[in-house]
Structures are given as C-alpha cells and as structure tokens.
Design brief:
Number of domains: 1
Strand content: 15-25%
Order of helices and strands: EHHEHEHEEHE
CATH topology: BirA Bifunctional Protein, domain 2
Pfam families: Relaxase
Largest sheet: 6 strands, mixed
Shape: globular
Structural class: alpha+beta
Distance between the termini: 31 Å
Protein name: Relaxase/mobilization nuclease-like protein
InterPro entries: Endonuclease_MobA/VirD2 (IPR005094)
Length: about 200
C-alpha cells in the first residue's frame, strides 16, 4: 500500500477549499469527460463508475443512493456544508482540511467493504476518529486507490489533529494491518510523495 498526502498550495483554507477537494474526489466534470472520451476512443474497455463512495465519518447528510450510484453523480452539497461547519470549531487553524490517498500495487484489489474498514481504521489510528471526513475509490487508473478528505479539527476537543509523522504512523498501521487484509501481496509499504497543485487553486 502507498500512503500519500498531496501538497496543498493554499495558505489559509476556507469554505471553498473543502468544496473543491470533495468535488475532486467524488469525480468532477473534467474527470467524467476524460473517462467518456477514453471509453469512446476505445482506450478503456468499459464505461463504469469513475468513483465510488466508500465511507464517511461524522457526516449525517450522505445521499441514500451513495452505496449504489457512481460517485460522480451524487449531490454532496449538504455533506460539504457539514464539513464547512468544522471551520467554526477552530477558525484560527490555517490548514482546516487534509487530502490523503491510499493506493494498492497494480493487480491488487480490495472489496468496498475492505476499503471501508481500511479507511476507518487508518483514520482512527492517525487521530481523525472525531473529525468529519469522506472517502471515495477511484477506478480510472491501473492502481486501485481511495481519496480521503478530512477536517483537521477534532469535533470534541476543537483542537487541530497533529499530523506530525503521519507518513511514519501510516507506515506502522499498514505494516500491522496488512496481515489481516486478504488479497494483498507481501510487498513492503511504500511512501510516494507527490505535489498536487492542480487540486487547490483559489
């Protein structure tokens, strides 16, 4: 498994930040258009759901059809509004939201139920169990992966969750958890730092 935290260029997060992030991970218009073009050109074999809802934590307004409908058609405006409310818990914090990616090696896969457990346990291990977060699986690359967007503010303490050494903590988590996830190879956990300036532009 690969754990990534795309770099966020924006200095101070606001309500628009989470809207952009969630729109990106659920499958925005650009991603849908690219998939349809590839399908019609024969570059992809099927026109399946580009994204699939995996899990949400401390968010009440998830559409009823989230488990069965493609992520890109879901109306998440109420869920986004809930996540935006987290800003009021501690408005002094600059980095109000965090984007994380967990990827498998090529030819590995997990069921959506296994992804749900993986995301939930990882986020708890990293200290985000009292935060609002949402995750989607992306199906438009060779490597199966999920994107997670989380508030960094603990809803109970109103403090920012420490993300010090999160790469190393994720490494420890996956090292211990790999043995209970069936279907994964014994390849070592890898870090893949990336820069993603295209996701946050405001």
């Amino acid at each position: 498994m690969i754990y990534e935290e795309p770099e966020q260029k924006q200095k101070k997060h606001n309500k628009k930040t989470v809207h952009i992030l969630v729109d990106y991970i659920k499958g925005n218009d650009e991603r849908v258009a690219k998939n349809l073009i590839n399908y019609s050109a024969g570059a992809s074999k099927e026109c399946a759901a580009i994204t699939e809802f995996i899990y949400a934590n401390n968010i009440i307004h998830i559409p009823h059809e989230a488990r069965t409908a493609p992520g890109e058609i879901l109306d998440l405006s109420e869920a986004i509004a809930e996540m935006q409310q987290s800003i009021a818990l501690n408005p002094a914090v600059k980095q109000q939201f965090k984007h994380m990616i967990v990827s498998l090696d090529t030819n590995e896969n997990l069921s959506n139920t296994q992804w749900q457990k993986t995301v939930s346990k990882l986020m708890g291990y990293l200290g985000y169990d009292n935060c609002r977060y949402i995750s989607f699986k992306h199906n438009d690359t060779d490597e199966e992966h999920v994107h997670i967007v989380t508030s960094t503010i603990d809803m109970i303490t109103r403090k920012k969750v420490s993300d010090s050494y999160s790469y190393y903590r994720a490494h420890a988590y996956f090292g211990a958890f790999r043995s209970v996830i069936s279907g994964l190879s014994d390849h070592p956990f890898r870090f893949k730092p990336i820069t993603d300036s295209a996701i946050i532009r405001s």
